[in-house]
# Entry
Amino acid sequence: MGGFYGGLRLSTAERYDCETDQWSLIAPMNKKRTFASAAVLNDKIYVAGGDDGNNCINYLNSVEVYDPDTNRWTFVAPMLFEREDFSCVAFHGCLYALGGCNETSSDLSTEKYDPAEDKWTEIPGMVIPSYCSKVEVIDDKILHAVSYHLLTELVRSSKNTPEDKFLHICLCKSQKSHRNSFDFGLCLIYVQQILSRTIFGRTNMF
# Structure
């Protein structure tokens, strides 16, 4: 969904059919987007933020949702902050937007979207603000891998924690990777209760 082609921003989107091993075009998004983030919530695809500028960066806070049953994209409430190079994740019926940057800041707060109310709200920020980070839901927590090999998690509110908050939990083993390599090459993989990190094809256990 979105991206670059020949230096131009795209609004096109494609779908992969694993049974036929083929890609096909679906309806294009309403906005051209690069460096956006997407997540699946309630069997629909949400794409948020990014930028749509061709000759200059134009940060976006708009959000649209794709319904595979109707093959249509529809705008929903925009995020509170314009942002790109961030991560979205679905968690407990809401959509979370973490990190990123825009023209004025690379220290953006965290916000979550409630589809029932079509509303974004700001929540307590991460321990270490970041961009180009990756997130995954594991053991009913949002695991957030950020720059400089740091790993944090979002702890849900409970009797012991009155509000959602992020905690610093550990450091990755390797301290040798260049920061940019870590930022742009990181993937979180969760398979059979094993968490690993892959950097340009190399996988190391935490």
User: Anything to note?
Assistant: Confidence is low (pLDDT under 50) at residues 148-162, 167-186, 188-206. Residues 1-123 form a domain with the Neuraminidase fold (CATH 2.120.10.80). The chain has two domains: 1-123, 132-206. The longest helix spans residues 179-185.
